[in-house]
Amino acid sequence: MYIGRSFGRARVSRTLGCRSFATVQNASSGFKIPVIDFAKYRASKSTQEKQETARAIVDAFKTSGFIYVSQHGIPAEKVQNAFKKSAEFFSLPNEVKETLAWEDPRSNRGYVRIGRERVTQATNADEIAALRNKSPDFKETMEIGRDWDSEWKNMWPEESVAPAFKSTMLDFFKTCHNLHFELMRSIALGLDLEETFFDDKIDKQCHNLRLLSYPPILREKLNGVDQARAGAHSDYGTLTLLLQDSVGGLEVQEPGTGIYHPATPIPGTIVINVGDLLSRWSNDVLRSTLHRVVAPPAHAISETEEVTPARQSIAFFSNPNFDAEIACLPNCGAEAKYPPVQTEAYIVRRLSETYTM
């Protein structure tokens, strides 16, 4: 429980009464990211009991597009082990990691070296290439999909090189899918749909488990315009589950103002945000909010130079089934803002725009 504790510009508070949800709030603007205890939803036996949590989640997704979830059911030991194995992978020699290099946006699997991806909201290929050359994302990633896919295969390091890496990540992938499934049920309830509305539209596990490593970097390299560890962007799918270390750097743009606020790490929680396809599904009732990763405070290594600390995070990009048609939900407006789109076509297009081949 976090009551009245300050985190930089953010402040954590607790609202007393029948609905008790902590919030991380910027006192000057009123922008807040609520911290929602998911245990009540998970333990509830009746729809009525679940509605309180479901409404809180949907209310937050209508405003900031972000929540923190506590009591989410993923054991701390499992999270810690996933981070440990991720760190071990990124510590491998570059020549080993490059044998697993990401190859195709349709697959979206494998190792992505620093500078290869430039996340952005731009869609023009030349504009994105210019951004990548001017201000590449200072991160490396490992992308993992469902392991039984008949067409696209995961790219695993040898067991002798990275012991238990594959088994750890496959187990974590399944664990995150299960939480995503529960969260989507809560969203259905919060939108006054049947709780199982999304079940047959998200059950094929067409997700992406992304391990992220932000190596230390000279502060001067992040001083340019549009320079960041990861540029401002929205995510592509239904929900993103983000587990971050204590270093920080994630910032969320306040809708309507363009002001960025820190999504400060809170131990034991997972940051959850709405992706583009869920926003389209809901006719923009639920917000897919821009966010970025900036450098945390640096420390001096000489009289003239500072270096940022290393940062780790794990993102689980949850998607609808690739063959699902995303069209305006029946109770999210009389007129659809967007034409229907197939999940796979949308995600492959976005990935094709942000990567260099």
Automatic annotation (TrEMBL):
PROSITE patterns: FE2OG_OXY. Pfam families: 2OG-FeII_Oxy (PF03171), DIOX_N (PF14226). Transmembrane segments: none annotated. GO terms for molecular function: metal ion binding; oxidoreductase activity. Gene3D superfamilies: B-lactam Antibiotic, Isopenicillin N Synthase, Chain (2.60.120.330). Belongs to the iron/ascorbate-dependent oxidoreductase family. This is Clavaminate synthase-like protein. It comes from Cylindrobasidium torrendii FP15055 ss-10. The lineage of its organism: Eukaryota, Fungi, Dikarya, Basidiomycota, Agaricomycotina.
